[in-house]
Amino acid sequence: MNPKIVASIPVVSQIIAALGLHSDDAFFVENLEERIELIIHKLKFFPDKPKVACICGLSPMMGSGKLVAELVETAGGKPALSPIGLDLEALHWEQIIAEDPEIIIVMPTGFTIAQTLQNMDKLLGLPGWKDIAAVKNNRVYIADASCYFNPDSLIVDSLEILAEIINPKYLNYGYQGTAWIKFEC
Question: Which CATH topology does 51-183 take?
Answer without folding.
Answer: Rossmann fold (3.40.50)
